[in-house]
Write a structure and sequence with these properties.
The longest helix has 12 residues, at 113-124. The protein is mainly β. Mean pLDDT is 83; it is low at 1-46. It has one helix at 113-124; strands spanning 85-88, 150-154, 158-163, 170-174, 191-197, 200-206, 226-235, 238-246, 255-265. The chain has a 6-stranded antiparallel β-sheet with strand order 1-9-8-7-6-5, with no helix packed on it. It has a 3-stranded antiparallel β-sheet with strand order 2-3-4, with no helix packed on it. A hairpin with a 3-residue loop joins strand 2 and strand 3 (158-163). The protein has 1 helix and 9 strands. The relative contact order is 0.21.
């Protein structure tokens, strides 16, 4: 029988409630690596979220590129963000913490007074009400902070992200030159349109509902959220994501954080479902 990872529920009292919902081995709960990041200290990689055996890996190869062929439309000749493998998405508890940012520096989040109060309450309550604990989609950019693998497919007029976990959803980035709807129907992942700036994929997303958190630490957003993501693949093994958060209801100005995912060649996504009847909710005790 082919070996498959066992996604077991993990509950850790007194720590962020999100730890009880990751459904991955504890050793996979590590921040991502990136150029200049510390070595992995010998830890192995899980389904996603781990640093991997970066210190023991051979030097990364060059950035793969798609053929310069009209078949690939606007993606022709651009960096191949996918390939035969999957991205090990980092486990980012706090997108503003130096522990998780690619440059290992804290991000100063420009909270409004109301937002600071909400964030402090969620911290004191150990993120007990994190929507992801109820099997709701993580949202954007949190889809790339939740430690389940992802695959990326580039077509002539769109880019498709498929995620193993996070409610087992997919995300479409339209590359056909369209504009956002004038009044988009609020959704968990919003309305995403993209374009290339050189070798950087720039994704602009609006039209969110207010039912998700930006991360497990409890950074909030409302329906005015506007996320700008910049994806680059500087080498074979690294996917760099620069995410800028703009929400005037909760932040006095836009703010940006950078994370990285690590390539797992030859690996494939497994079936994973999180829909209802989570037996571990009793451990989300709050204060």
């Amino acid at each position: 029988m082919k070996y498959r990872y066992n996604h077991s529920l993990t509950a850790v009292a007194g720590v962020f409630a999100f730890l009880s919902l990751t459904l991955i081995p504890a050793f996979a709960q590590e921040p991502a690596t990136g150029p200049g990041a510390p070595p992995a200290e010998g830890r192995g990689a899980g389904r996603g979220g781990a640093r991997g055996r970066r210190a023991n890996r051979p030097p990364s190869g060059p950035t793969p590129r798609l053929p310069d062929n009209p078949f690939y439309g606007v993606n022709a000749g651009k960096p191949d963000l996918g390939g035969k493998g999957m991205w090990q998405v980092p486990y980012v508890i706090d997108m503003a913490s130096a522990r998780y940012t690619a440059d290992r520096k804290d991000v100063q989040v420009p909270f409004t007074a109301e937002a600071q109060k909400i964030f402090d309450e969620r911290t004191a309550d150990h993120s007990k009400d994190d929507p992801e604990g109820f099997c709701l989609p993580p949202g954007v950019p949190r889809m790339m902070y939740t430690p389940y693998p992802a695959q990326i497919y580039q077509m002539a007029d769109r880019i498709l992200f498929i995620f193993e976990g996070g409610a087992h959803v997919w995300r479409l980035i339209w590359m056909d030159g369209r504009k956002h709807p004038a009044d988009p129907n609020p959704t968990y992942l919003g309305d995403s349109i993209g374009h290339w700036e050189g070798d950087t994929l720039v994704v602009d997303t609006v039209g969110f509902n207010d039912r998700t958190w930006l991360d497990a630490a409890g950074h909030m957003h409302g329906e005015k959220l506007h996320v700008t993501e910049k994806f680059t693949r500087p080498d074979m093994d690294t996917l760099r994501l620069e995410a800028t958060i703009d929400d005037p209801d909760y932040y006095t100005k836009p703010w940006t954080t950078v994370t990285t995912s690590t390539w797992a060649p030859g690996q494939e996504l497994l079936e994973y479902i999180c829909q209802e009847n989570n037996k571990d909710l009793k451990h989300l005790v709050g204060k």
